[in-house]
Amino acid sequence: MNATPYDTIGRSYSATRRPDPRIAEQIRTALGSAATVVNIGAGSGNYEPDDCDVVAVEPSMVMLQQRAANAAPAVRGIAEALPFADRSFDVALAVLTMHHWTDLERGLREMMRVASRQVVFYFEPIFGGTLWLVKDYFPQMLELGTEQRAPDCERLARTLDVQTTEVVMVPGDCADGFGGCFWNRPEVYLDPRVQDGMSSFAQLDPEIRARGTDRLRHDLESGAWDARYGSLRTQTEIDLGYRLLSAGLP
Fold first, then answer.
1. What digits encode the pLDDT tens for the residues 114-135?
2. Which residues are bridge partners to 91 per DSSP?
3. pTM, to two decimals
4. Residue 1 domain-assigned?
């Protein structure tokens, strides 16, 4: 298997990305009574339930090497060609991964082939330009190929038999490090390690990334950021566009 983008951009992933317990609970509830789960695009294993038999699928060797010693067994593979027989699992799980797939419909059909139910944690692209981080400092993120490929619920429903779609609120003290995680803690976005753990940052041109970071640093030091967005610091949670979709039937 050839190298993947995450062989380059995912090297520091495990240092800054960890499951948030509230989001993990919402995902676990969506999995329901599943006894067997395949986690597609599994990365380092965040949000894999510990009370199910889980098999992880991940194309990047760099990401596979960052899985904990006690993590679920993992195989190297891609969503578009899962190495399993039909109906091998109760649920196929995909967590913040579909925007990296090369053929969305084929990957979704593979999820349906190997499991009767599908659970997908994803980001609605219509929200992409609403967060201050993107709108004011890194609008170039919207031009990235991964962002352009990100599917919305309507597109997913063309293939999946969607049953429910839930809002996943992002807590003000979210423990994970995905793109919108630090919406009320702007200083955290100045940390290059945090940026390296987010694919949207890691894919930016280094000069664009540096300029946006410098603007944010300047606005924090001058108080300009707080003048515009300081009220966010007191909010406990927010809807940034993250969604949890359940599809298929038991």
1. 999 999 999 999 999 999 999 9
2. 37, 117
3. 0.91
4. no
